[in-house]
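Structure tokens please, single chain.
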Amino acid sequence: YPPLGRKMMNAITALLLLSIAPTNSAEDSGKLRFLAIGDWGGQDQPPYYTPEQKETAQGMSIVAAASHTFSPSGETEHHPAASFVLSLGDNFYFEGVREDAVNMRFEETFEKVYHHKELQVPWYVIGGNHDYRGDITRQIHYSTSRKGTRWTFPDFNHRVSKEFTVNSSDSDSDEIRTMKLDIIMIDTIQLAGFLDLRSELLLGYFYPLPGPESSILAAMTLAWIEERLKESDADYLLVAGHYPIYSACSHGSTKELVENLDPLLRRYGVTAYLSGHEHCQFHYNLDGMDYILTGAGHDCCYGASKKYNLPKGGELKYVLADSFDYSGDSGAKGGFVSFEASADALIAKIHKEDGKTLYETSLLPRKDRFKWVKSDAEVTE
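Here you go.
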């Protein structure tokens, strides 16, 4: 893979560009829906995908479609089609994208697997540790060099802003107002480093991360993140990175993110932090901050062996994991998360590979200081 010097120069250049994904025109359905998936990157030998990945893609297409449900009062509720997908890293296993195989890997691992019409929407992408084992700049170049591609990866760190219109909360008013969602897509490898294949074989797959390769680049990344958080006036503000801050599963929490990133999220009132990396799914809450992890895009599941290491006082509200790594007793082969933003709440649902909802929770807009709209509950279907 490319030498450190070239990676650092590309990353520094990208940070200076302060890339921002264009804001879509306001959705007029009163709601905004999107999906998130992590660690979906297939495999680096034929057929370049896993059966679990294809099953999960099918489940995503089902959940992404527009639908109608009935409320407890009997009213019909419309749920619009998903507008976009967040890709949370480890997009290409196991050694990222090689220079001589870019088009083939995109075609076999991405385009052919996520071929469903419901998934022909923008995919907003960040890199994971396995992507860094190849030439991650090739993934960025694929986004910037192909007109009309759904693959949207303009820089290592970038911002996605979306607007949607809702009716006034005043029942006597016909006023239409615009609400905003900001998602800060961040490169956590710049903040915490990664293990190359040789180190992983020597130290073990779940060995702690070594820390950033460059303290200067890490400081620049944190400064960029803080600036984006500070300037956001969004009703819902999410931060999405590959590595988790806190984790119940086999890799465990990420020391550098606990120390350096988490305080920023709290300072600027972030609604939730999204991540992947762990091949499991969970929702964790600590002192009012929410952490939602979905890393089961191409297989499942790790065990939840680190749940007892989570900070005291926090609550692991839900976890989808095997009793130990890949024991299979969770009954899940993969999974993803869906979100639906409205005037009243941001609803997050954890799904298994077939689209079945396993758990859902609701978060209030930022102005309401993130208290729960309703009690969290596992969903029985």
